[in-house]
Amino acid sequence: MALDLDKLRARADEAALCFDFDGTLAPIVDDPETAAALPGTPELLARLVERYAAVALISGRPAAFLAAKVDVPGLRFVGLYGMEEIHDGEVSVDPEAESWRDAVAAAARDLAADEAVTSSGAWLEDKGLAVGVHLRRVADPGRWTGPVEAAVQAVAERSGLAIAPGKLVWELRPPVDRHKGHAVRRVAGEVGARVVAMAGDDLGDLHAFEEVERMAAEGTEGLRIAIRSAESPQALLDAADLVVDGPEGLQALMETLA
């Protein structure tokens, strides 16, 4: 049986809380660069940091982006699915992932020159160690999904990079075994947490949900929270212990925990 909120709150001193950013703390917007946490959420995170053993943002965004968007002392920032983390104000990068930086840069150049990408008006998000191709700004994304996906696959085959699909986005990133599940386990392990909760809204969060389930089998109690929207993948909703409606629903849950 999944952990309930009362028990999670009662065991705050041995609990790790992990949150995705886009679609979880921040509403999805057409321009990903303008994404921001809901008003009041940074203050809630600050209250949670004071009470819980660990509170972390675990996102596909770069760690520096997360720190700039949610400036809360004591909050952990784990970016690029665990390939980056901020320590003592400096971004620490996984060495194996770092070795792929030049390949990612070359892939970004190839995508910028691709006819389907340029004709569609897709936005390229350069994350340094990953590059995302977004169709959210495109007027008719359905028309361009096939051609842009084919372009991404072609570049991936040439570069050796891995493809991670999301909501109206494909991301090319190093083919290293790093995902949000590893990040959740690391955050919980470093504080000796015996309770862990993860909140997310997209396919990339499934790895984290799966890791919470594995940790539960090992004796660490867990709670998987899915944030529901019109774009939520059914697989994530099915895997969740608790479903809330949008970042607003999560914010109300955070208020309960705080």
What is the strand and helix layout of this fold?
Elements lengths: L4 H6 L4 E5 L21 H11 L2 E5 L4 H7 L6 E4 L4 E4 L2 E4 L1 H4 L2 H13 L1 H6 L2 E4 L4 E4 L6 H19 L2 E5 L2 E5 L6 H11 L4 E6 L4 H13 L3 E8 L5 H6 L2 E4 H12 L1
Parallel strand pairs: 1-2, 1-10, 2-3, 10-11, 11-12
Antiparallel strand pairs: 3-4, 4-5, 6-7, 7-9, 8-9
Helix pairs in contact: 2-11, 5-7, 8-9
Descriptive overview:
By secondary structure, the chain is an alpha/beta fold. It has two domains: 5-93 and 178-257, HAD superfamily/HAD-like (Rossmann fold); 97-173, Alpha-Beta Plaits, CATH 3.30.70. The chain is built from eleven helices and twelve strands. Helix 5 (101-113) packs across helix 7 (141-159) and helix 8 crosses helix 9. The longest helix has 19 residues, at 141-159. The two termini are 23 Å apart.
Q: Under the CATH scheme, which class of the largest domain?
A: Alpha Beta
Q: What does the radius of gyration come to?
A: 18 Å
Strand content: 15-25%
Examine the secondary-structure arrangement and name the CATH architecture of the largest domain. Answer: 3-Layer(aba) Sandwich
Principal-axis shape equals: globular
Helix-strand string: HEHEHEEEHHHEEHEEHEHEHEH
Report the helical percentage.
40-55%
Count of DSSP E strands? Answer: 12
Mean pLDDT, as a whole number?
A: 94
- Which regions are unreliable across 5 or more consecutive residues at pLDDT < 50? none
Main sheet characteristics: 8 strands, mixed
- Count of individual domains: 2
Strand order of the largest sheet: 5-4-3-2-1-10-11-12
Structural class: alpha/beta
What is the fourth-level CATH superfamily of the largest domain?
Answer: HAD superfamily/HAD-like
Distance between the termini: 23 Å
Q: What count of helical segments does DSSP give?
A: 11
What name does the CATH topology of the largest domain carry?
Answer: Rossmann fold
